[in-house]
Input
Amino acid sequence: MSKEHLTEEAIQQYVLDKQQSDAVSIEHMQQCPQCQAAATMYQAMFNNIRQLPVETFDFDLSVVVMSQLPAARPGFSWGMFCIYLLVTAFLLSTGILLYHFHEYLQAFMSGITSILTSLGIITIVTLLICQVIDMYRKYRKKIDALDFQ
Ligand SMILES: [Zn+2]
Output
């Protein structure tokens, strides 16, 4: 038996789940009356805690919370419509430009190695996506700030 008594945590661990305690702790617990007394006290305390009634609100919490939430927005939003319109116009104009100038573009692209071209395209597309996402976040933040004032 080890000379030092078990820590409070080790005693609680022994009471709550004996299987998880290490062999030294279990051996000490079986031979030390002082630690056994502490374990008995913890056992009684845990039993009392388990018997306490579960705390519940005496009112309907969901009604209180739901009444403080802002009303749902209408399905159609002019802001989103404008964003979709701008994105569509951008894509259409890009497509038209690519369609009309694809011969020049092909001549331009043939002069550059394909790996550089694909790296450039990936970089540009990634930057564009990041810009659009950032612009949309800023837009939502501003619109949300306007709605609550
Ligand atoms: Zn002990």
Remarks:
- The radius of gyration is 34 Å.
- The chain has a mean pLDDT of 86.
- Residues 114-147 form the longest helix (34 residues).
- Residues 5-6, 28, 32, 34-35 surround zinc ion (CB under 6 Å).
